[in-house]
UniProtKB/TrEMBL annotation:
Protein name (record): LysR family transcriptional regulator
Organism: Pandoraea horticolens
UniProt keyword annotations, A-Z: DNA-binding, Transcription, Transcription regulation
Key word DNA-binding present: yes
Cited Pfam families: HTH_1, LysR_substrate
GO molecular function terms noted in the UniProt entry: DNA-binding transcription factor activity; transcription cis-regulatory region binding
Family membership: Belongs to the LysR transcriptional regulatory family.
Keyword Transcription tagged: yes
Domain HTH lysR-type, residue spans: 1-58
């Protein structure tokens, strides 16, 4: 017994005529009769009997027809899914992103993608860099900030995406905010600091910068999330560190303080693609949109 034999039998049972079934299946009548014969032999029972110019199912044939019809329905649904994916009429895309890309870059990209392909289901997961890396096996593409963690599977493609810079932030009435030329890490270290939680890309970058400079900062508070850092700075609890992108639409209560010299506080945002050797069509289109204008493009992921 083969799936083709069951699919043929489903059509014969539906139309009640071998000749009509052959026309519907674009097969010759002997080919259809041959498949029916082999199917009957595999069951060891007659599945139908001649009835005038057509056929009538036996009791066993009616039972087999139930399974054959279910197989045909599943087959048609699989064909519809295939055709939908080819035309981007359906599908799903699972995107993971750490705080900076999730909050300040991807909303615009995702909105444009959804407008182009409204039938593609989008599932967005955000968190700090460590949390996103831990979920790579459940994602189609992920965007992280800072250094790429060591030990990634060789099947995961790593692709630089955007440049970013981490800046210090202070209230507008803070002494550091009165220095338009920026401030040194040594000057910043004189004030209590508000840092992101361990596992954050910003936290790792800032900690490394202070370490390289031979400074031991005074950490007053650790908070999860960029907006929590901003609120604590507004409340006068210290100096924070955030992506420069997060300050683009900031109100007049906070000021960016560029660090001079930057001490390695410039970084790359990186795309990680867990299944780069077998990209789904939605993933391929989304990456093409993310890297639009980049000559190396998403094709470099393969």
């Amino acid at each position: 017994m083969t799936p083709d034999q069951l699919l043929t039998f489903a059509t014969v049972a539906e139309l009640g005529n071998i000749s009509h079934a052959a026309q519907a299946l674009h097969l010759s009548q002997p080919a259809v009769s041959g498949q029916l014969r082999l199917l009957q032999e595999s069951f060891g029972e007659p599945l139908y009997r001649r009835d005038g110019r057509g056929i009538r199912l036996t009791a066993v044939g009616e039972q087999v027809a139930v399974y054959a019809n279910k197989l045909r329905q599943d087959y048609r649904q699989a064909l519809a899914l295939r055709d939908g994916l080819r035309g981007m009429e359906t599908g799903a895309l699972r995107i993971g992103a750490s705080t900076t890309p999730a909050s300040y870059l991807l909303p615009y990209v995702i909105a444009e993608f959804h407008q182009r392909y409204p039938a593609v289901a989008l599932h967005i997961v955000d968190g700090n860099t460590s949390e996103i890396v831990a979920q790579l096996d459940r994602l189609d593409v992920a965007f992280i900030e800072g250094a790429v963690p060591p030990g990634l599977s060789p099947e995961i493609a790593v692709r630089p995406w955007r440049d970013d810079e981490v800046v210090a932030i202070a209230r507008v009435d803070h002494p550091l905010a009165q220095q338009p030329e920026g401030a040194s890490l040594q000057a910043i270290a004189e004030y209590p600091l508000i840092l992101r939680e361990p596992g954050s890309g910003v936290r790792a970058l800032v900690a490394r910068a202070f370490s390289v400079a031979g400074l031991t900062p005074r950490v007053a508070l650790e908070l999860a999330g960029v907006e929590s850092i901003k609120e604590a700075v507004r409340a006068g609890m210290g100096v924070g560190f955030v992506s420069a992108m997060s300050m683009r639409h900031e109100d007049a209560a906070l000021a960016s303080v560029r660090i001079d010299p930057p001490h390695g506080l410039k970084r790359l945002l990186t795309a990680l693609v867990p299944h780069a050797d077998a990209l789904s069509r939605p993933t391929e289109r989304f990456l093409a949109q993310c890297f639009a204008g980049d000559a190396s493009g998403p094709a470099a992921l393969r």
